Amino acid sequence: MTQYDLVERAEKALRIAEPHGKAEAYVAANELLSIRMANTRVIESKAIDDTGIGVRVLIGDGIGFSSTTDLTDKGLTRAVGDAAAMARHRKIGFSYDLPHPKKAKAAQIYDKATAGLIEDVDSVTEYAHRMMDASADASPRVAENSGIVNILRFNKVVLNSNGVHVDEKGSGWSAFLTTTAQGGAEQREGMVTGSTIKVSDFDPERMGRESAEMAVSSLGGGKIEEGDYELILLPSAAQCIVTELAECTSPPTQEGSIPLLRDRLGEQIASDSFTLRMNPRRTGFSMVGAYDDEGVPAKELTLFDRGVYKASPYDSWYSQRNGLDGTGHGFRSTSMLTGGTVYHGKMYHVEPSPRAACLEMEPGGSTVDEMIESTERGLMVGVIWYSRIMLPTRGDYTAIMRMGTMRVEGGEVTGPVHKFRLADNILDLSRNIEMVGDPEPLSHWHMPYGSIAPVKVSKAHCMPYYD
Amino acid sequence: MFDLCEHVLGSLKGVEYADVRVESYDNTSITAMDGQLLKCLRYHKRGAAVRLLARGAWGFQSTTDITYEGLMRAVESALSMAYAEARRLKEPVRIAPIKVCEAEVVPEVRIDFRGMAIDDVIDLTLQWNKAIKVCEGVARAITNYGTISGDKYFASSEGARIHFVKPVPYLGLTAFGKGKGGIQSYSEDFGGTGGHEIFAGGDPLPVCEKVGREAAALADARQAPQMRDTHVIFDPDFMSLLTHEIVGHPSEGDRVAGREAAWAGTAWWKGMEGEAVGSEYFTAYDDPTVEGTYGYYLYDDEGTPARRKVLVEKGVIKERMHSRETAAMFGVEPNSGMRANTYEYYPIIRMSNSFWGTGDWKPEEIIEDTREGILLAGARSPSIDDARYQWAISSQQGWLVKDGELTERVKNCLVTATSPVFFRSIDALADDTRMGTANCGKGDPMQLAAVGNGGPHMRGVATILGG
User: Fold this and answer.
1) Contacts of B89 in chain A (CB under 8 A)
2) Are B185 and B174 in contact (CB under 8 A)?
3) Max alpha carbon distance in chain A (Å)?
């Protein structure tokens, strides 16, 4: 744990910045313990202890940012000086002000028992072994287990010259287990993920068992024929497509890499059975809390309402540039050029940017059994891998259907099939969602938290591996 | 700095091995869009990592507190992790021996960015951004400029003492063209170890203009047709991503050993060392010692002296990338594959510069020799099967080839094949190898590493999903 008083250091940074102009100080202390498993053993026991500050300085119509891990007075002076130098050159071109204080209802993102595990390596290592043991005990066909258990404890402080003062503590666990089952020369996988703030939710035996069941039940399949299928995506698989679509609503994504939804606000993008919102206040792993990373109350926001593209997430900068109200979704995400830091935690070394995160689907009322019963010629998928929008202006989308792949015929699951490739268009897939189930909480290595439902897509183009 | 490392290492008792890394980074990142600075930040970070092997198990702790007391707390924490796993261990970890070195690595820098005033760097970025808007058809111009100035001290309990200096500039250029057929983007980038000479010898203006012109022309191009099992000719920029994904990744020793099975995946050619998997035109290397490249280093993060690895030679699998631990598992010598992105992270096996061997054809001879097919230029996005067996990659653009001539520019090209079928189909290889750049994500928590990748023009058989 850091020896610094984070609030005191943030206040000091603002005092140093005062002669230059308005300023914001974002201080974060992260502690992450990770027990990584492979080949049915622990291969890496590791921990990160990382404390730093990001400073934004506003001078006239210019804004600059700098960050440092050096929280001494000298380090803060250097960071403020760098940010001020940047501000003198980075002219905004519109009237911008840092956020003003607004009160948010507290969000419960800290759990004492979870946070305490940072110092209890033995118990966390035991969780990892319990997952692997439960998987191995589930079937003699289980060949190997791999995965990770993460414990995070953090403290973030946001102060600015307008009076914003946020001091939040958080904790969380996340874990996943991938089981490899062996049947003759064939190997198939199963996977289960989990993540919440309370370690009392962590059930390593259930995760081990379910991961093994998915792997073993996938053994013995054949190849599919290329063609259009009805496709049932279980929540872990559905989240890949939902996350890609949600990311397309983010203003920087629309401007920079995937302009698929640019200027399409108000259009019917997906089927009317699809409603998706951001709910940062719902407790999850790390990007969740009462306030976003600028100290603005984080709001619930409906991105797609019965298929209509309803809203985009905004931070203060993008919202003021576009003459809109901020939505409290300024998150500090990562960049290669700032060290490529992408561990679970609060990133002090980058500026906030609007992102679609903390996704929550509206329940559709259908069960997976009903989806199966309504399917004549279809496929069901448990886990998708390497999900990508390949052609950013047209939305051509592809992914590997990696785990839990089953054939569904005449309203029944008729057996496993080999991995295959989905090659379609993300907008067509979204329009073809015909049934939505009840969402369940999920975690993912690139999406710390979500509440995602199973969906049935009426038509999706699928290809076998041609070899 | 070595004094601090030695002080810490000298206090360790009862460990089989330990190393300490103390690192500092001064980074700059600037993004300009349509003549305006979108992002402008400086980043200073400093920290240390202790990795040790005790009672047959690993422990690792990183910290931003680089006092002696801070590092000793890190040692204590790393020891507790090793002991926690040691109690459950079935097989102790073994590491293969290496030549222990003392060295100073200072790469050559011709146009040094490290002393440049921020005003000058911003002016350059804006100039390069303006140059992209070379014609009316360019609707948007984006320039990403970044530099990393790293300084790393590595010391091990075996006596290694290595000081690395790492100057890394990066320049990304993107244009969005708007034409009759809608919007299309086109990008080029530069990255390497050195100074601004990495950017086309220090004058990237002609490349900026090329990026604008290509985007504008591409927006007017017609859709690529579907082409089943056709001749595909890949240019060196496409080869950069292809080599990275389907040769580099499955050659990583940890993947081959199943240690990445949890999520990143395995390698389809596991256990096939010495077997033929492709045509005589399939030779590939991984070589960190190529000066000026993005993946340049002379010692890895275990202190192993760097050397070229022959991954595949004339279609036969020769060598994997190894750490000291996987080298011991495979019964081979360590070959310098182990790297951590920054001090926060546990080192893992990474590519350095992975590239395809060079042939003796001229690129134009390959085109002249092709009756029907497509030339794919530049790469956009990959989606690769977890065992690297089946792959799909979108290119930035394509040129239809008919009777030995390039006939028409096409857009929205997505190419797919299975690796063994494709490797066997390669029947022409040019002499124009070029090295590109990539920021590769791997590990959990994920680490983004700078790597070089490349190859010459090459011809094989694959399927185009167009239309």
Assistant:
1) 41
2) yes
3) 74
- Between CA B400 and CA B393 the distance in angstroms is 17
What is residue A338's predicted lDDT score, i.e. its pLDDT?
A: 46
Q: A255: which chain B residues are within 8 Å (Cβ-Cβ)?
A: 33, 140
Q: How far apart are CA A228 and CA B416, in angstroms?
A: 18
Partner-chain contact A47 B389, CB within 8 Å: no
- Disruptive mutation site among A1, A45, A132 for chain B (greatest number of B CBs within 10 Å): A45
Q: Write out chain B residues lying below 8 Å of A129, CB-based.
A: 88
Torsion angle of C-alpha atoms A293, A295, A297, A302, degrees rounded to 10: -30
How big is chain B by its Cα radius of gyration, in Å? 23
Q: What whole-number distance in Å separates Cα of residue A426 and Cα of residue A452?
A: 17
Q: How far from B104 is each of A137, B4, B107, B317, CA to CA, in Å?
A: 52, 17, 10, 34
> Structural domain boundaries of chain A?
6-217, 227-463
pLDDT digits (tens, 9 = 90+) for B146-160: 999 999 999 999 999
| Closest CB from B37, B43, B380 relative to A338 | B43
Q: Read off the pLDDT of residues A385-421 as tens digits, 9 standing for 90 and up.
A: 999 999 888 899 999 999 999 999 999 999 999 999 9
- Please give the full DSSP string across B99-137, using - where no structure is assigned: ---EEEE----SS--TT--HHHHHHHHHHHHHHH--STT
CA distance A226 to chain B (A): 13
**Do A64 and B40 make contact, defined as CB atoms within 8 angstroms?**
yes
Q: Does the domain made of A6-217 have the CATH classification 3.30.420.10?
A: no
Query: What is the average pLDDT across B29-45?
Result: 91
- Distance (Å) of CA A340 to CA A113, A256, B341, B399: 30, 19, 7, 35
In chain A, what residues touch B391 (CB-CB under 8 Å)?
A: none
Closest residue by Cα to residue A277 from A451, A61, A102: A451
Whether B363 and chain A come into contact, CB under 8 Å, resolves to no
Query: Which chain B residues are closer than 8 Å to A75 by Cβ?
Result: 44
What's the CA gap between A38 and A180, in Å, rounded? Answer: 11
- List of domains in chain B: 2-220 (3.30.2290.10), 223-464 (no CATH)
Would the CB atoms of B33 and A37 count as touching at under 8 Å?
Answer: no
From the list A272, A291, A273, A271, the residue with the least C-alpha distance to A281 is A291
Q: Using CB atoms, which residue from B262, B265, B414 is nearest to A147?
A: B262
Q: Tell me how far apart the 2 most distant CA atoms of chain B are, in Å.
A: 72
